[in-house]
Design goal:
This protein is mainly alpha-helical. Helices cover about 75% and strands about 0% of the residues.
């Protein structure tokens, strides 16, 4: 059977998965998020000043940004999990969201005097931020890749990268419940760094595990 014929057969109504694509992905996403949340509570704990942090403009901006990343990534996975379906506006949407935070971080850094710039990009937790996001994202990434393996993505590396982007941004949003940082420059560097590492890991794992 030719590859194009196989893709057409998988995409037809006669070989649909037992559960809809969205249902399978969302179920595993919720499961991974629950494990991620439990890890946060067990290892890091909640920020004791979370009531004040929740209304801080930088926190609100960060959460809106992470929500945008999650939204574009989930949209992409819904498409890429189907055989022969492209990413649509996924890549451009994610790119714009990443550039938006980079631009905000750079603008904040330029508006800060030279004596305070190191504090803007280093904060007080730069040594552990990216690594913590990567660690928290692993159960989410694993759950998403497991779900995708039951489906039929035809672009395994790209699908894995988008799954990593979703896992990393979700883990970053959960890590935010612990993180005391309020610098947009910090988010642009260390949050994006951690999310990018998870996306790269997803691409590597996806290229191997999602190939069929």
């Amino acid at each position: 059977m030719k590859t194009n014929d196989l893709i057409a057969l998988l995409a037809s109504d006669t070989l649909q998965p037992q559960k809809p694509v969205r249902q399978q992905l969302l179920r595993q996403l919720v499961l991974g998020a629950a494990v991620c949340g439990l890890l946060l509570l067990a290892v890091f704990g909640l920020n004791p000043q979370m009531d004040q942090m929740a209304v801080h403009p930088a926190f609100i901006t960060k959460m809106l940004w992470l929500t945008a990343l999650m939204g574009f990534s989930l949209y992409g996975l819904f498409r890429l999990a189907r055989p022969g379906v492209g990413p649509g506006h996924t890549v451009s949407g994610i790119g714009l969201a990443l550039m938006a935070m980079l631009s905000l971080g750079m603008l904040q850094l330029l508006q800060t005097d030279s004596a305070g710039r190191s504090g803007q990009w280093m904060g007080g937790t730069w040594e552990v931020c990216s690594a913590s996001i990567v660690a928290l994202s692993l159960p989410v990434l694993g759950a998403l890749l497991w779900a995708l393996r039951q489906l039929a993505p035809t672009r395994p590396a790209l699908t894995g990268a988008v799954a990593g982007m979703l896992a990393g941004s979700l883990a970053a949003s959960i890590y935010s419940l612990h993180c005391p940082e309020t610098s947009l420059t910090f988010f642009a560097l260390w949050y994006e760094g951690g999310i990018a590492l998870v996306s790269a890991l997803g691409a590597v794992l996806g290229a191997r595990w999602l190939r069929w």
